[in-house]
Amino acid sequence: MTALLEIDGLYKAFGPVRAVNGISLSVPAGEVLGFLGPNGAGKSTTMKMVAGFLDPDQGSARICGDDILLSPKAAKQNLGYLPEGAPAYGEMTPVGFLKFCASIRGLKGAQGRAAVDKAIKRTALSSVAGQTIDTLSKGFKRRVGIAQAILHEPKVLVLDEPTDGLDPNQKQQVRDLIAELSEGRAIVISTHILDEVDAVCSRAVIIDQGKVVADGTADELRQLIPGKKTPSLDEVFRYITTSDAVHRSEGDHG
User: Fold this and answer.
1) What is the pTM for the complete model shown?
2) Mean pLDDT throughout 129-153?
3) With CB atoms 3.0 to 4.6 Å apart as the test, which of 37, 52, 140, 152 could cross-link to 105 if both were Cys?
4) Where is 207: in which H helix or E strand?
5) CATH number of the domain to which 228 belongs
6) pLDDT tens digits, 56-67
7) CA–CA dist 74, 63 (Å, integer)
8) Residue 53 gets which letter from DSSP?
9) What letter would DSSP give residue 83?
């Protein structure tokens, strides 16, 4: 199966700290990948490099075959990115912000209006579409961020904490939307909510200290704890990312 997103040997250091230490993975069409790790593991840094916001020290990221550094315009045409914190222009309304995003994407006239209307409907923003973004709750601001990420129908979606700040009903709406969008697309979701892996992800990668330390389906990850039939994903996460994990002997995953 052809990968829509390919990450090959990404490295990034900030001074003496190597935030990302040789991450490689690929995501084919139809896959929703949970990208997990403790705070400071390198998740957001990896996502920023994939999206072209940070240049890697080494390695590459390709979106639908286009290198994000060598062919940034072509790569970004197929990328929808929700960054950490979902920044937006607070004085704008959601509809005004999305129209602005549409024009940047080259979606103008009737095509732009249709794209904005569809994104607002998909993210359930109609009730607040005319309010300024600064006056919105954290959950609605997050949905504005998701709306701009899906506006241009990208083939690859990279979503950093897409359900952060949402109430349980809103989380389910976003999970349903991700499931709907996954057909024909590659989706990467960074999350601290491990229930999300069971709910929407077909595969999960766990990173720690800038390296991939586990990669598999939720059931395959559960099998990494020896002698326990049905551990929770929280237990698996703690087991894999703590220093006493027996299976992570020196040299593993190097």
Assistant:
1) 0.89
2) 92
3) 152
4) strand 203-208
5) 3.40.50.300
6) 999 999 999 999
7) 9
8) S
9) -
Same domain membership, residue 64 and residue 1: yes
Same structural domain, 120 and 171 = no
What is the C-alpha to C-alpha distance for residues 229 and 198, in angstroms, rounded to an integer? 17
Question: Using CA atoms, how far apart are residues 18 and 229, in angstroms rounded to an integer?
Answer: 36
Whether residues 173 and 69 share a domain: the answer is yes
- Here the tokens at position 58 are 């080494």
Whether residue 101 is found in the same domain as residue 65: no
Distant-in-sequence, close-in-space partners of 73: CB < 8 Å, separation ≥ 6: none
Distance CA 66, CA 73 (A): 9
Q: How many domains does the chain have?
A: 2
Q: What is the C-alpha end-to-end distance of the chain, expressed in Å? A: 26
Q: What is the mean pLDDT of the chain?
A: 90
**Is the model's pLDDT at 218 over the cut of 70?**
yes
Distance CA 12, CA 179 (A): 32
Query: What b/e string do you get for 191-220 counting C-beta neighbours within 10 Å, with b at 16 or more?
Result: bebbebbebbbbbbbbbbbbbbbbeeebee
Within-domain flag for 83: no
Tell me if 78 sits within 8 A of 155, measured CB to CB. yes
Residue 69 shares a structural domain with residue 165: yes
pLDDT at residue 112, as a whole number: 95
